[in-house]
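Lab notes, practical 5.
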Amino acid sequence: MDVPDKQGFTQRSTLQQVLNSTPSDSSSHITAKAQLDNEPPIPYCLEHIWHWFWELNSARNETSPISYNEIKAWSELKDTEIRRSEVTILKHLDNKYLHYINKQREKEFKTNKGSKK
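Output from the prediction step:
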C-alpha cells in the first residue's frame, strides 16, 4: 500500500485523497475506508523501522539496494542510534521491496510487449 506507482503516488495516498474529497456516504468513500481499515497493521515495536525504511527508500537511486554505508550515513545525519538487528530488518525489507518492484516491472514489460504485437 506504500509502494509508489509510476506517478509517485501510493495506494494509501490515493485512498486518503478519496476519503478527503468524497462525501462519507458515497460508495467510493466507503470502499476506500474499508480498504484502509483492512490493511494489516505494522506492529508497534516495528513502526520506527518501517518509517526509517520509507525515509531511506525516498533517497534511493532507482532499484539499487540500500547500502550499509547509506544506512550509516542516514543514522549519523539523523542522529539516530540504530542497532544491528534493526539494520538486518531494514535490509530484509529492502530485499523484499526490490523483489516486489522487479516483479511489477516484469509484469508491466510482458503486458506492454504483448500489447505491441
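Observations recorded by the TA: The chain has a mean pLDDT of 85. The two ends are 32 Å apart (CA to CA).
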